[in-house]
Peptidase C14 caspase domain-containing protein
Amino acid sequence: MQVQIIMAGRRSRVEKCNLCGTQQWVPYETQIFKCGKCRAIIQLPKNDKDHWLKVHDSVYPGLRFRNVVETAISAGRKRAVLCGVTYKNSKWQLKGSVNDVKCMQYLLAEKFSFPKDSILILTEEEKDPVRIPTIKNIRMAMRWLVEGVQRGDSLVFYFSGHGSNVPDFCNDEVDGFNETLCPVDYRTAGMIIDDEINATIVRPLPKGAYLHAIVDACHSGTILDLQHVYRPSQDSSREGRDGEWEYQECRSGVYKGTSGGLAISISACGDSQTSVDTTAFTGNVPTGALTYSLIQAVEKESRITYGRLIHSMRNAIREARKGMHQNAGSTISPFVNKLRPPFSQEPQLSSSERFDVSKKEFVL
């Protein structure tokens, strides 16, 4: 039997976790919540009869729920989804994806003060089946990420794994291809295309809310289908000050922007490029080139602009490629081959709106 109460000026109900059986209070209208005990993501059946509650609900400042679910409705909250896919026991297996997730988790918690309970991790090492990065679980995690998003919220979507592209039959893409993310079960369940990612986590963003997507995968340049792509100056000494924003036209006319919020994507490479996980940076621990260079740049400078960040990441990858060539002798490593033209990896910045990259500080 479902119990209802009014709590903090907001109607709430008791729901039971499908996995551990714990009962807990959740906002009445929520469709997805995270269990306060086992941290599983639970999707509830939709109840259309209660649609009117969404219109009248409100949150009173200073009053909080007794459960972790309160983070779903608290303005100014931080929330992140971190996906690392290794594709174990396949010829496409990656070695650095789980390391990447652990590094990003540490960065979010220590540098940007993300609460531990607000970070949802999906890797093949998780014991909870809901946290394995299947296409179903990643989709559910993306919906959870934007559940109840409000002004002042800061959201992060991170993915380390394989990316690909497929023909675009909707006439959205200038190059004729949709960019995709590959879940662990992509060979049987399919891939997640950029159109779906945009519709799920970009378009719902309200005014005053922020989303950062950090995607360490091949062909990820416009993985969020954002309208503006930043093109840095070819002069590496200019730190992006002479770069310019390029407008990405959606030929079908479908709206690809937000509902007033700001969405920013930092991706490993251009849509036509490939990215790698490698030990070139650490010497022994495999990591994604984008992930490692981003974390290093942020840790070196306490206050770094987007222009400096992109500049630092690109330089780090260039220097790694240069060093590997010099040290390789007559034997060229797979990492060097991956980074040689036309497969040179250049991190990309895109956004739902233009801004001054030399002045805007990178903050999550």
